[in-house]
Amino acid sequence: MKFTVESDVGRKRMVNEDRVAFFEHPDRFKLAILADGMGGHNAGDVASEMAIEEMKSYFLNLDVTQLDSTEAKRQWMLETIQSVNEKVYNHSLLHESCKGMGTTLIAMLIDEYDCLIGHIGDSRVYYFTADSVTLITKDHSYVNFLVEYGEISEEEAENHPQKNFIVKSLGTESTIEPDFYELQVEDASNVLICSDGLSNKLTTEEMAAILTLPLSIEEKGKKLIQLANDSGGEDNISVILLSNDGEV
Q1: Do β-strands 29-36 and 133-135 pair in parallel, antiparallel, or remain unpaired?
Q2: Residue 110 near residue 29 (C-beta atoms within 8 A)
Q3: What is the mean pLDDT of residues 215-243?
Q4: What is the strand order of the sheet 18-24 is part of?
Q5: Which among 31, 49, 84, 119 would be 20 to 30 A from 75, CA to CA?
Q6: Beta-ladder partners of 32
Q7: Mean pLDDT of all residues in 62-75
């Protein structure tokens, strides 16, 4: 699969608290990571940077013979995320300037066209095919909790005043339980991992329109960022875009 990684501070913020990265193991495995440091908390950029660097270390030092089944992959991802959470949490306790810091996390372990996603917070994964778009992840947000329990509609959630209040994040508690999703990437499809700086500004129709343009994958990534900025750019904006065009 082809990929591109983009991140932008946006038009209103002074600091980019998002971190994104794509790592390739000497074996066939790859790891895409997006972390959105929590706005309004101290040192969100420290939390997101730590999450990326710790995940990178665990991944590049991995003995991939351990990942011989979906369950083994899930167990590795769970143990890794829990270890990273503990390190970020302990750092926040030891450093006054980092007290209360946290971050969202999307970690996607890629085995050729099979993907295992570990998810915490309100960063998202979308899957685009020629005729459909699917939001793979479910936001760990107060508003999404209200939607799931029928208190408000999805339409009301879009403009709810507490839309950005998340109820689960990495590093703010001593333990964490991520959600897991499995995804098989078919020919002529795209996977979009993004922070809420993108998902809050673009509709899925706007995203899909960009992905169908006759542009390189790098140009599509930059176009997504540009449109979010053109729509206000109030937050940091980050994307990892993966494309399976069917070419060998």
Answers
A1: unpaired
A2: yes
A3: 97
A4: 18-24, 29-36, 105-111, 114-120, 179-184
A5: 49
A6: 22, 108
A7: 94
Q: Is the dihedral of CA 12, 43, 142, 137 positive or negative?
A: positive
- List Cβ neighbours of 125 (8 Å cut-off, separation of 6 or more): 106, 108, 117, 119, 135, 136, 137, 181, 183, 191, 192, 193
Tell me, what amino acid is at 59? F
Q: What is the pLDDT of residues 169-203, one digit of tens each?
A: 999 999 999 999 999 999 999 999 999 999 999 99
For residues 67-73, give the mean pLDDT.
95
Which domains occur in the chain, in start order?
Answer: 2-244 (3.60.40.10)
Q: Please, what's the b/e burial string for 89-124 (b: 16 or more CB within 10 A of its CB; e: otherwise)? A: bebbeeeeebeebbbbbbbbbbeeeebbbbbbbbbb
As a whole number of angstroms, the distance between CA 47 and CA 57 comes to 15
Tokens at 152, concatenated: 């408000």
Instruction: Give 74: exposed, middle or buried? Use CB within 10 Å, 0-12, 13-18, 19+.
Output: middle
Q: Which residues pair with 128 in a beta bridge?
A: 133, 190
pLDDT tens readout for residues 82-141: 999 999 999 999 998 899 999 999 999 999 999 999 999 999 999 999 999 999 999 998
